[in-house]
Amino acid sequence: MTIQNTPATRHLTLIIPVYNEADGLRRHLDEILQRLKALPASVSADLLIVDDGSTDATPGIAQALCEQRSDVSLLVLNRNFGKEAAIMAGLDHADADAVVVMDSDLQHPPALLPKMVELWLGGADVVEAVKISRDTRSGLYRYFANVFYRLFDALTGLDLHNHSDYKLLDRKVIEAYRSLPERTRFFRGLVNWMHFPAAQIPFEEPAREAGESKWGALCLLKLSWQSISSFTALPLQLVTVLGGVTFLVSLLLGAKALYDKLSGQALDGFTTVILLLLIIGSVLMFSLGLLGSYVARIYDEIKARPHYLLDHNNSRLPSMASSENDREG
């Protein structure tokens, strides 16, 4: 594909969420900045680092880079709100024709940036980097990830298998994403759900060069349920189905018990009764827990708390004075 350079410059912002990434951060950011030199002349680019309440030297390293380079900015959240909130903060404050969301650990290869920009200039509103291998994670993590993606696909109809947060979004996609009213966000799922014209780039996920991943199996399980419950109410409908199945089984067992009683074959003791009570009690507790989880999700939504709060004292933005105070998106 040939890119036609135009006199009008288009601007790209790289949003890089970080959390306790001090080990190797400066080296990784320098490599990302180096890769920006390969972008076409019609596209200018800068970095927007979003620190998600790091407790190590990460903010200081980012601040030092901001002081040395005018094309690097920093947002610091006043506590750890999670990666989804960090991405939202970056989208709220990025003033560009398009953004790329990527990790700082180089597991999202910056070498893909020129190709992503090429596809964007060619007409794609979304450019997604899709993993073709995932060998860098533990076996338990890969197992839970595969289960989650299969379950998410079955319940929502959205196939996110091997998708990542490494995406380029056009300005129209950014504004559409920011306009969504829900508080619980699943970035890669919502981008897929909005269904803008998209292109995909396959990539091999390299091994992490420094530090440790903040995402373990338990974090994945938590994100999995948050994502599923925010995208579909089908689990609630399954409770109704489960109740119907339990009712039918109860009718069959009741009929058999009545037949045994009338035919003189009834057995003494309460073993069957106890088992039935345990089964029905378990189903009821499971159903109540599921309902409670959805009620809690509704409670979180109606509180309408902001996605994040900024630490203005440590943030470094060129237009910080004119930006909205802790925008909610």
SSE topology sketch:
Blueprint: E1 10-18, H1 25-35, E2 43-51, H2 58-68, E3 72-76, H3 83-93, E4 98-101, H4 113-121, E5 126-133, H5 139-156, E6 163-170, H6 171-179, H7 187-194, E7 198-204, H8 217-231, H9 234-262, H10 271-303
Parallel strand pairs: 1-2, 1-4, 2-3, 5-7
Antiparallel strand pairs: 4-6, 5-6
Characteristic terms for this protein:
329 residues; alpha/beta; Spore Coat Polysaccharide Biosynthesis Protein SpsA, Chain A; 2 domains; seven-stranded mixed sheet; 10 helices; 7 strands; disordered N terminus; disordered C terminus
Question: What this model shows, in words?
Answer:
The protein has 329 residues and is an alpha/beta fold. It folds into 2 domains: 10-216 and 306-321, Spore Coat Polysaccharide Biosynthesis Protein SpsA, Chain A, CATH 3.90.550; 234-303. It is 47% helix and 15% strand. It contains 10 helices and 7 strands. Strands 3-2-1-4-6-5-7 form a 7-stranded mixed beta sheet, with helices on both faces. β2 (43-51), α2 and β3 (72-76) form a beta-alpha-beta unit. α5 runs parallel beside α8 (217-231) and α9 (234-262) packs antiparallel against α10 (271-303). The chain is elongated, with a radius of gyration of 25 Å. Residues 1-5 and 320-329 have low confidence and may be disordered.
